């Protein structure tokens, strides 16, 4: 796989995750967030296991260990996001959750004790300015839900960086698949202790869960893990900064939210920032996250 192909894959993953905010908004009335996690990631893992049965059986203990760590971060990410989206709009949640584009280069700078490359800094300025314009319509009031969405960004930035370490040591496909299983298991554990497990009994209730499981989990997480082998964590974070654009587009189509001139301008700035980082890239330096 080339860097260009990896970029295209991560672009498509951003589209899938942009749609996730709509699916999660459809489940605002669901009583148990843990049950949503159980079914979303459990169904995703089962589908992958059935389709790639022989390869899935070749997993080793190191992969399972790394998958457990990745699954912990995914569980924390989506639990925080689902709490956050209950009191914020889909577009605002998309904006705040995508601020991982700041935290990834920030954490790398702290680790390496070096400032990010000039194009990374310029890209961050463009992307964050664009995200601000994209979310001005909601006022960006700092609610409890907003704080949960920021926590989402911080935790997922950690996931991106650790994934970049793990994929150098184990099979990326197996890591991407088994982390979903652990995420579902954590949901079972927390659901048991909080006594909040539920099973949807109507087809319409299964629609968002299946959408999240198939497109936003089985496809997106595995493809992210594979594609990250061929690009840098900064490029990955910047491509995921496209999520709020797609979240807003889906919100307009399915939730009847309006797209203003400022939001169009914001979307354009985000695209410019992502382009600055990903077009004609230098060879990714993967050594700064090696252990």
What does this structure look like?
With 291 residues, the protein is mostly helical. The chain has one domain (3-280). The chain is built from 13 helices and no strands. It has helices at residues 3-25, 33-51, 53-56, 61-85, 90-97, 100-112, 118-134, 144-166, 172-194, 203-227, 233-240, 243-255, 261-278.
How far apart the termini lie comes to: 24 Å
Put simply, the count of helices is 13
The main pleated sheet reads as: none
Count of strand segments: 0
Low-pLDDT regions: 281-291
Radius of gyration over alpha carbons? 18 Å
Mean pLDDT: 81
Question: Helix coverage percent of residues?
Answer: over 70%
Query: Shape, please?
Result: globular
Q: What is the number of independent domains?
A: 1
Strand content: under 5%
Q: How do the helices and strands follow one another from N- to C-terminus?
A: HHHHHHHHHHHHH
Write a brief structural summary.
The chain has one domain (3-280). 75% of the residues lie in helices and 0% in strands.
For this entry, give a set of tags:
291 residues; mainly alpha; 13 helices; 0% strand; globular; disordered C terminus
Strands, helices and their partners?
Blueprint: H1 3-25, H2 33-51, H3 53-56, H4 61-85, H5 90-97, H6 100-112, H7 118-134, H8 144-166, H9 172-194, H10 203-227, H11 233-240, H12 243-255, H13 261-278
Helix pairs in contact: 1-5, 1-10, 1-11, 1-12, 2-9, 2-10, 4-8, 4-9, 5-8, 5-12, 6-8, 6-11, 7-13, 9-10, 11-13
């Amino acid at each position: 796989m080339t860097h260009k192909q990896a970029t295209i894959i991560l672009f498509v993953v951003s589209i899938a995750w942009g749609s996730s905010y709509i699916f999660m908004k459809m489940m605002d009335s669901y009583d148990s967030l843990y049950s949503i996690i159980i079914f979303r990631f459990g169904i995703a893992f089962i589908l992958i296991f059935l389709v790639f049965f022989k390869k899935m059986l070749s997993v080793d203990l190191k992969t399972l260990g790394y998958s457990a760590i990745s699954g912990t971060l995914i569980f924390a990410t989506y639990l925080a996001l689902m709490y956050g989206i209950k009191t914020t709009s889909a577009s605002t949640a998309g904006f705040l959750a995508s601020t991982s584009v700041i935290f990834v280069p920030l954490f790398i700078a702290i680790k390496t004790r070096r400032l990010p490359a000039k194009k990374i800094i310029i890209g961050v300025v463009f992307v964050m300015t664009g995200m601000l314009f994209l979310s001005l319509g909601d006022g960006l009031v700092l609610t409890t839900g907003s704080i949960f969405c920021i926590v989402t960004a911080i935790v997922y930035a950690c996931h991106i960086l650790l994934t970049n370490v793990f994929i150098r040591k184990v099979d990326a496909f197996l890591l991407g698949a088994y982390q979903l299983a652990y995420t579902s298991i954590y949901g079972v554990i927390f659901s048991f202790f909080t006594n909040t497990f539920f099973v949807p009994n109507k087809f319409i209730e299964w629609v968002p869960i299946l959408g999240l499981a198939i497109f936003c989990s089985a496809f997106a997480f595995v493809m992210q893990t594979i594609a990250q082998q061929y690009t840098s964590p900064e490029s990955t974070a910047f491509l995921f900064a496209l999520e709020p654009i797609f979240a807003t587009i889906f919100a307009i189509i399915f939730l009847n939210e309006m797209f203003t001139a400022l939001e169009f301008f914001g979307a354009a700035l985000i695209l410019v920032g992502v382009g600055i980082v990903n077009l004609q890239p230098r060879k990714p330096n993967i050594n700064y996250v090696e252990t």
